[in-house]
Amino acid sequence: MADHLSAVLDHIDADLDKSLERLFEFIRIPSISTDPAYKEDCRRAAEWLTVQLRELGFVAATRATPGHPMVVGHQTQAAKGPHVLFYGHYDVQPVDPVELWNTPPFEPTLVAAPNGDTWIVARGASDDKGALMTFLEACRAWKTVSGELPIRVSILFEGEEESGSPSLKPFLEANSDELSADVALVCDTDMWDDETPAITTMLRGLVGEEVEITCADRDLHSGMFGAAARNPIHLLTEILATLRDADGRITLQGFYDDVSELPKAVKEQWARLPFDEASFLNQVGLSIPAGEKGRGVLEQIWARPTCEINGIVGGYIGEGFKTVIPSKASAKVSFRLVSGQNPTKIREAFRDHVRSYMPADCTVTFRDHGASPALSLPLDGPWLRPALDALTAEWGREATLAGTGGSIPIVGDFKRLLGMDALMVGFARFDNRVHSPNEKYDLSSFHHGIRSWARILAAFAR
Amino acid sequence: MADHLSAVLDHIDADLDKSLERLFEFIRIPSISTDPAYKEDCRRAAEWLTVQLRELGFVAATRATPGHPMVVGHQTQAAKGPHVLFYGHYDVQPVDPVELWNTPPFEPTLVAAPNGDTWIVARGASDDKGALMTFLEACRAWKTVSGELPIRVSILFEGEEESGSPSLKPFLEANSDELSADVALVCDTDMWDDETPAITTMLRGLVGEEVEITCADRDLHSGMFGAAARNPIHLLTEILATLRDADGRITLQGFYDDVSELPKAVKEQWARLPFDEASFLNQVGLSIPAGEKGRGVLEQIWARPTCEINGIVGGYIGEGFKTVIPSKASAKVSFRLVSGQNPTKIREAFRDHVRSYMPADCTVTFRDHGASPALSLPLDGPWLRPALDALTAEWGREATLAGTGGSIPIVGDFKRLLGMDALMVGFARFDNRVHSPNEKYDLSSFHHGIRSWARILAAFAR
Hints:
The structure is a homodimer.
Chain A: H1 2-14, H2 16-27, H3 39-55, E1 58-63, E2 70-75, E3 83-89, E4 109-112, E5 118-121, H4 129-146, E6 152-158, H5 168-174, H6 176-179, E7 183-186, E8 198-203, E9 205-214, E10 220-221, H7 222-225, H8 232-241, H9 264-272, H10 277-282, H11 297-303, E11 306-315, E12 324-325, E13 328-337, H12 343-356, E14 363-372, E15 375-376, H13 384-395, E16 400-404, H14 409-418, E17 422-426, E18 440-442, H15 443-461
Parallel strand pairs in A: 3-6, 3-7, 7-17, 8-16
Antiparallel strand pairs in A: 1-2, 2-6, 4-5, 5-18, 8-15, 8-17, 9-13, 9-14, 10-12, 11-13
Helix pairs in contact in A: 1-4, 1-15, 2-4, 4-15, 13-15
Organism (chains A, B): Microvirga lotononidis
Keywords (chains A, B): Hydrolase, Metal-binding, Protease
GO molecular function (chains A, B): metal ion binding; peptidase activity
């Protein structure tokens, strides 16, 4: 297959205008999933994709769900090499406020950017129609040049990603055998910067807890009971203050037991990244990193477990002042987890920690606000190194491994329901105005994105 | 004078039915100060008192204010002995919900209580018409028996106590020479228990502060910025947790510098009081005293300075969960002060304490929610010992010195505007349902209250 790669890349360059035309045709279908008025457009977008897949030799179908349909396609070629499942979504966000758009949101427009770049401006240009089409156009180039794809490919497109994916889990569960592959490919993440490609390999997990402390059985007047009666706000603040030590480490029993140090190679790569801690914090008005001492900011936000208090309330919070000692006080606390940490164990460690501070005459209740383990793509597995090399070759710059503190639910679903890891590669830029007026995708993201996938498919075939 | 006392007490006993008749006449005037519909009734109550005072030989007048009138009376006898100003109020609380009253609220009714006591049930029976009349009836008995009062007495009755006393301060300021006396007598406090009289000698002061901490200049997503960006809730809880040490002592610099230990005699008296710490806390569902180690609960709530967090809020406090790192978090904090502590100094110590924990990239703002110094009647002054002895003689049980954590604004006003200490003696019981339906005053409170004042007047004359 590798012998075809340079011809495939040449074809991609030569065919770029036609690729753009296809993308524009796709974008013009206003497939807004949250608005019932666009239900038929969502169906049209699904049908359009099914037709595209069939052109590329897939056995493809628009599959009904209680909501908007799924599109599933499988290659009919004899299985060879690894089997990948590519995931994307054809639905888009609403366009309001439409008066802030400089061009009609569903009429894709090429705009010359101030810095000389060219932007594709339209709703869905980046999220996720442009991104999804980078993969389909890579498949098209392979099919055109060599008559077949270098590896076995299946496809899953959904139409409810922007409205919470209610049909996705049931669909995965009902079709788990059909949709299971060796690895999932997800194209929904960002470049590191305009010129540096990135693979997101670490998704932190999350444990959400609400803790409520009750002291007296009613609100008290501080003049009558002050000091003598336990104040639940005071108790709560004292307990919460113990969650981190002076070095910013989380103090829960066993919290770090299953946490591994970052591999030296990754640490070194991150140290080489053009990341300025001061600028990162300056953008939100801060300048002093607040987390674990001796850890860089990138490591803190991508690869270290954390504890945050996300909400707290107790006593009188209106205008003015009341000298009340409240009966109750509560807080919402979350832990971001890294690979290896067991959410259930962390939740229990938190509850034990809080309980250990409770006086015998006060009570504490906990509320479980969900948990998900961290996910990470093994550095030494079969996917990461070939993909990194392919990206590095395409962009002429070392591709970086990235983490993300946020969650990408589909990746957890693939792992949990289908037992698949996911390779997250994306060509979006930070400033793409995804979900906002004047959403854009750089023409170079689209072009090099197609070429990148063409290279990754070849790399996986080796 | 003392030679008249036993005749005066006998007269009080013999005249009790007539005293009650006068009280009932007064109670029947529905002088609700908060409801404009009762404006004329308030004026009638003031006029009624003015007539009473004139009968007792006072030069008295109903004095206009922007609100309900004041009643001021002065004795015309040549000045001899100390000069006291008795304060009371003729207005009462509304009676809603009227359907919960067992008898008409403005038709005083004698009710046989389950324990054999007799209750005077009516709005104002305790607060403050019954209490106020104990003093007037004592004056009446002295006047009847000996033709004059044992000491020089002035009177101030207001009609806006239940609606925030808006006219009081201006009236005190405008008439400060006229109203200044050697000591004020205030009849608005409780007995220690059904059989033990009490003088309230300590009113704690109060400093109210609101502290708001700002970290990032916007709310952040904890997945993106968690750990690296300072969380103001975490910072606030850490700071608030430092306000008390492990022994429950307040950690502000110099907080205890001006705090004196309780005199040994008072400490011993309080130790003898039938006060059960467990029962006190049990009534609100607690059992473990939470304040300073090594200090009794009574000492904590009456005679020690405290710090309470009265309110706290930050981040997401609605249903469910949001992984936000908020920009701001705030708390309302109050300090109860004891005699000697300077509110301004305490406020500054608190602000300095908070500032000392602030990272350089975060900001804190403070809001002043008022301050008042503690007030206490000197144990070794001319008023306390004679009054205690008089009460002890009347009730056949050692009168106790009490503190109160709450504030009685008039006492601060007398001290600040007129330079007068106040002797707070009251005959109310805890269960008088003041401000509630079926307010009552024990007939024995009324009877022994009159006799107590008769004795105190005699004691001051010595």
